Amino acid sequence: MKSRGTKKKSLKIRNIEHTESAEMKTNNKKLKRKLVKYEELPAYLKDNEFIRDYYRCEWPLKDTALSLFSLHNETLNIWTHLVGFLVFVILTVMTLTEKTTIENLLTGFSRPAGEGRWMTMKRNGSADSFPDTYTRQISAPSFIGAYRDGYEVAIWPWFVFLGGAMVCLVFSSVSHLFACHSHKFTLFFWRLDYSGISIMIICSFFAPIYYTFSCQPYWRFFYLTSITIVGILVIITLFAPAVTSGHFRSFRAALFLAMGFSGVIPAAHAVSLYFHHPQVLVALVYEIAMGLLYAAGAVFYVTRFPERWKPGAFDLFGHSHQIFHVLVVAAALAHSIATLVIMDWRRELPPCNAGILG
């Protein structure tokens, strides 16, 4: 009897210990999924002392992935570039399928048709006006077809730009989603993020330089080769062991400033060659807008305004990194319009050997 009572008591103790253990595990999981304050973060996750709360810190991988659909201080950082990625996916799909509804996507960048048109220009000596919208050129059959005289315009540089933009934006979204998981993930994903920026810089150059300098193949080769080599060297440097998380912030600002202003020399060269072609000047205006948007984004990123002004007030909405992301997408769209303007201009011109481009 005594032995049986002892067994029952032992079994009861085990059940209690098992229950307590299960409760501890559940509490630990809840604790891991808890949003924490800046002071509770490990050193490698402390980046912006003006964002005071709503941090994810070393969550399990599954919970980190599912946090895509929850609210924290990285939610808008993830979704601003994820939405931008989807915009460029739509541009790519509509280019491939030749759907005319593409003009609705960027209608804000196009001029109104009919009365009150914002610009009328001469094209190659004739009094033709600009097309109603440059986004429409994506879906026009002649966009991937032949000129009136049988000369064809290559479309692959446009796809290079679209691909680079999508890589940059999706790398950014994924990095902001997963970098909080662990120190190892932080190092890898921020390197991935900056590699995406470098890829976008390289790819952004291809289309406008390819079309603008089609009749100057040596200059075209020089510009495209130079930017490609520099971009590859940057990516190699980013993955060097000597580069730590402390270097990432300066890398990001420098890369976007480079993206905004590294096109100054080829742009000035293009204007000097084709200043009497109004479409080139219009494309230049969009490129200047792109540069200013990237520069403004870099200023917000470096100064950490507005959260510096009122720490804790912009933890979830409106802090500098979110503004930076929106400006990056806007700059990429401005570059898209500039590229379409140049493509339309090139499409309407005779072959280079006609000798009218100088």
Automatic annotation (TrEMBL):
The keyword Transmembrane appears for this protein: yes
GO molecular function: metal ion binding; signaling receptor activity
Keyword annotations from UniProtKB, A to Z: Membrane, Metal-binding, Transmembrane, Transmembrane helix, Zinc
Ranges annotated as spanning the membrane: 76-96, 155-180, 192-213, 219-241, 253-275, 281-302, 323-343
A Gene Ontology BP annotation from the UniProt entry: response to hormone
Chief location of this protein within or outside the cell: membrane
Pfam families: HlyIII (PF03006)
Membrane topology designation: Multi-pass membrane protein
Compartments where found: Membrane
List of residues binding Zn(2+): H176, H321, H325
Keyword match Zinc: yes
GO cellular component, one term: membrane
Protein name: Heptahelical transmembrane protein 2
Organism of this sequence: Nicotiana attenuata (Coyote tobacco)
Gene: HHP2_0
